[in-house]
Write a structure and sequence with these properties.
By secondary structure, the chain is mainly beta. It has no helices and 14 strands.
């Protein structure tokens, strides 16, 4: 969570550095302060996934920490990070969504970029491969909201349409089938 002063605090299990306080094992039963990159400033939002988390500052810069096996921290490598690292690309995000190994962000200009685990189409870029840097989601539209599940993402556009992409083995994309999608696909039943 981000405090009123913009500090990021985390607690619970800290395997893979998910608490961002420089430690990689043990528990924190009380909140600990996550270490942000130099010059990051105050956090205005924090999003947590299964084993990683990301924060956004007032300028839209993003920093992530924790498990990075598939590149979900967006810093160009796959090394776990016990303190926050800056997401590459210089993008200004209005919103972040963290899943299980995949992170997506909606920019202030209404585009969506995803990075990390992509083997099930989670990046929405038309490929089923992992990327450790932000990749533009395949459909360019004016996105207004974003939400991530463990292995899929859904977004709302300015026309009120919902699109989803990623794993669909349990019908989580709402498409009337159980076929995964690697590009945003319109949910027509809404």
């Amino acid at each position: 969570m981000a405090t009123a002063a913009g500090a990021v605090q985390c607690w619970c299990l800290q395997d893979n550095g998910v608490l961002g306080n420089g430690l990689v094992t043990g528990h924190a039963c009380a909140p600990v302060v996550a270490t942000m990159p130099v010059g990051f400033g105050a956090a205005v939002d924090v999003e947590a996934g299964v084993a990683s988390a990301c924060a956004r500052n007032a300028l839209g810069a993003a920093a992530c920490w924790g498990r990075n096996t598939s590149g979900g921290l967006g810093n160009g490598n796959t090394i776990d990070q016990s303190t926050a690292v800056t997401v590459m690309g210089g993008l200004a995000f209005a919103q972040l969504a963290v899943g299980s190994g995949t992170t997506c962000g909606r920019t202030t200009g209404g585009r969506i970029y995803c990075w990390g685990l992509g083997l099930g189409g989670q990046l929405g870029n038309g490929m089923n491969v992992n990327f450790s840097t932000p990749q533009a989601v395949g459909v360019a539209t004016n996105w207004t909201d974003l939400a991530a599940g463990a292995s899929h993402t859904c977004a709302l556009n300015s026309l009120g349409e919902v699109y989803c992409w990623g794993a669909n083995d349990q019908g989580q994309l709402g498409l009337g089938s159980m076929s995964s999608r690697n590009v945003p696909t319109l949910v027509t039943a809404i």
